[in-house]
Amino acid sequence: MKKTAFLLSFLSIFIISCGGNNSGENGQSNFSRFGGQAGQRTTSVETNEIEIGSIAEQVRSYGNVKAQNVISVQPQVSNRITEFYVDLGDTVRQGQALAKIYDATFRDQLTQARSQVEQSRIALQRDSSEYVRQQRLNERDLTSESELDIAQASYQNSIAQFESARSSLTQAQENFNNTVVKSPVNGVVVSRALEVGDIASTGTELFQIASTNGYESRIYLPVQDWRAVKIGQEVNMRISNESEVNARGIVSRKSPQLDPTTGLGEVVITLTQTGDAIYPGVLVENVINITRKEQAMIVPRSALVEQVETVINPETNTIDLERTYSVFVSRGDSVAERRELDLGIEQGDRIEVLAGLLPGDKIIVTGQSGLEDGARISVASGDRFQAPEERQIGGNEDQPATNNGRAPGQNPLANMSEEERAEAREKMQGMSREERMAYLRDLREQQAENADSTSN
């Protein structure tokens, strides 16, 4: 009985203690004070309008620019090199002399061949006259048939020797002429293998000459990109680490098969316009425009929010990742609304939106991380979205003083001397936005502690 009376008394005291005024000190309800809707956190965000413009699906790959034809110049005779007439980078014409090979031996061979031709010609004339004489004598029965046959054989042999001597002369003349190495095309010397005094031998490359008829770039693409590229598509080229387009071209040839070792397909791009920075051997990024759309809705990649879900496929007993993308839209500049998107063409950091947005929507581009559908937002722009040291934080002089004389959210720099303020601003240089906010919060707490100790 005593225990029951004690419990009733304790319960009565507890109910009385929890009763009373339901409002806070400033008339605020306990619901609001303890996390109700009236106290919901507001996130400061920045918004942009949706871009309406053109966007292109592109294939990008790096390749070196080179001449369409690179000719290997090889000496036709073997001997010591006595002189070079051109060097690397020189522009040459077709038939221009490039180098000289020692020619004394070939000059002697040419002289000897000419002598043999002259001797053969004299023998041919002699045997020809003898054959004609024997024919006339045979017609008058003044010589035998055997003598005529001998004269005829001698004549035929002289003809053969004369033709052989002429062939030897032609070869000797050709060898002598080849002691001067000449360019077979108009172009630029891109390689030289030997030096003066080296032995040039047939079948060994002496020069490489790039034809100036045109330039091309060869790239190797994975199967998806290789399949999408078509002959005749336009190509923009830029040198690595440069933003401007340095050359333009078209897809002129495409390999009908993939390389069995690398799995890549070769695509040849012929340059149609070149700038001063384009020269053989330079590395360029080839940007091939596959498809292009006009008046498309475009959002920046940084505004997208990615959701990844793990899905177990019971048929294959594998785990698949399903990715969905959304953006947050500002509704009335006070509420964030999540919109699921269907995406299309991607071009760098710009992405086409096929469905999920309207042209007049304002998408949140800064501060969307951590937002939820229906979250309260405050759209900030201009000086309201600057770094803490560039604007005044919080209230004004008309706000009621709380927290020992400080207005709620007052800038702690306002309570400092000019020297202290300059020192604080110097410390905040180079800090991120979160670091600056934390630094200012520490200053407020320190000032509050100093004010409390002073009042006590």
Description:
The chain is 29% helix and 35% strand. It is α+β, with helices and mostly antiparallel strands and 456 residues long. Strand 19 (342-347) and strand 20 form a beta hairpin. Helix 3 (104-139) packs antiparallel against helix 4 (145-177). Residues 1-38 and 386-409 have low confidence and may be disordered.
Helix and strand topology:
Layout: H1 2-18, H2 30-33, E1 43-49, E2 51-67, E3 70-73, E4 79-84, E5 91-92, E6 97-101, H3 104-139, H4 145-177, E7 180-182, E8 187-192, E9 199-200, E10 207-211, E11 215-221, H5 223-228, E12 234-239, E13 247-258, E14 265-274, E15 283-300, E16 305-313, E17 318-331, E18 335-340, E19 342-347, E20 350-355, E21 362-366, E22 377-379, H6 418-428, H7 433-455
Parallel strand pairs: 1-22
Antiparallel strand pairs: 1-21, 2-11, 2-15, 3-10, 4-6, 4-9, 5-8, 6-7, 8-10, 11-14, 12-13, 12-15, 13-14, 15-20, 16-17, 17-18, 19-20
Helix pairs in contact: 3-4
Organism: Gracilimonas halophila
Family: Belongs to the membrane fusion protein (MFP) (TC 8.A.1) family.
Pfam family, one: BSH_CzcB
In a nutshell, what does this entry contain?
The protein has 456 residues and is an alpha+beta fold. It has helices spanning 2-18, 30-33, 104-139, 145-177, 223-228, 418-428, 433-455; strands at residues 43-49, 51-67, 70-73, 79-84, 91-92, 97-101, 180-182, 187-192, 199-200, 207-211, 215-221, 234-239, 247-258, 265-274, 283-300, 305-313, 318-331, 335-340, 342-347, 350-355, 362-366, 377-379.
